[in-house]
Specification:
Largest sheet: 8 strands, mixed
Radius of gyration: 18 Å
Strand order of the largest sheet: 1-2-4-3-5-6-9-10
Shape: globular
Structural class: alpha/beta
Number of strands: 10
Distance between the termini: 22 Å
Order of helices and strands: EEEHEHEHEHEEHHEHEH
Helix content: 25-40%
Length: 266
């Protein structure tokens, strides 16, 4: 199938955002918007989003990925209102692919909360694919969970200091092995905050959810199990050694095929 790749420039809050859309020759009615987390830009870690876009576009799925405000090639400071960025990108996506009637949002890590909150307010979004979802960090998601927002020098950090941070500092001060502390902290933060926060964000969304979990994030598999139990219209896929930051091509392919299979199952 022939594919066309288009570079996009659109605006939100007077700032220019840069995106790329992969358009198949005959696009299906359901597309995918990729929302990068706070540590990545539109290509994804090890070009994960680029490769996923090509695989899905070859199957007829139009895919758009973009840089949020303050990330990659987009203008402005780090996004203070990520929901506006998603809304602007979604509008542009439907303009460039008029054959598309609905879209899913793929969101790794801390982008999951923003994706869930946006999906609840846009009826065109019928599904969410969440890769190793973490506690939401966009201010909108933090506010929904009743959490204050904090700004760090090296970028924007949202929500209160995590259990992982507190335990890591405490362990270092007392001379405990750092690796053991990080593992325990990850399990603590995940079990206490991730699933409840995302479940709250998902409460207003009536579509389908794909939960992809690797074992790279301590406690992440337990969190996605909890979410799957709380959200009945979800499918959970466990991929050994894979995560939002997947380096091996076999793991990337497994994540891509899980998404492609889910997209075609309903």
């Amino acid at each position: 199938m022939k594919l066309e790749q288009r570079a996009l420039r659109f605006h939100t809050r007077s700032e220019a955002l840069i995106g790329i859309v992969d358009v198949p020759e005959r696009p299906l009615a359901r597309g995918m918007l990729i929302l990068a987390d706070s540590t990545q830009y539109r290509s994804g870690s090890h070009r994960q989003f680029t490769l996923l876009s090509r695989l899905l576009a070859a199957r007829g799925v139009a895919v758009m990925r973009f840089d949020r405000m303050g990330a990659g090639d987009s203008g402005g400071e780090s996004a203070a209102q990520a929901l506006d960025d998603v809304g602007a990108a979604m509008k542009e996506f439907f303009i460039h692919v008029p054959e598309m009637k609905e879209s899913v949002i793929l969101a790794p890590g801390d982008a999951a909360g923003c994706a869930a909150l946006y999906a609840a307010q846009d009826a065109r979004v019928t599904g969410l694919a969440l890769l190793d979802p973490l506690l939401p960090r966009c201010p909108n998601a933090a506010a929904a969970a009743g959490e204050p927002a904090q700004v760090a020098e090296a970028g924007v950090r949202y929500g209160p200091r995590s259990a992982a941070d507190r335990l890591l500092r405490r362990a270092a001060a007392l001379g405990f092995p750092i690796r053991r502390a990080v593992s325990r902290a990850g399990r603590e933060a995940t079990s206490q905050g991730v699933a409840p926060a995302l479940a709250q964000a998902l409460a207003g969304f009536g579509g389908r959810v794909l939960l992809v979990s690797g074992d790279a994030v301590p406690g992440g598999q337990d969190a996605t199990r909890d979410l799957a139990g709380q959200y009945p219209r979800s499918r959970r896929v466990e991929i050994a050694h894979a995560g939002a930051d997947v380096r091996c091509s076999a793991w990337r392919d497994a994540v891509a095929f899980a998404c492609a299979s889910w997209l075609g199952s309903w």
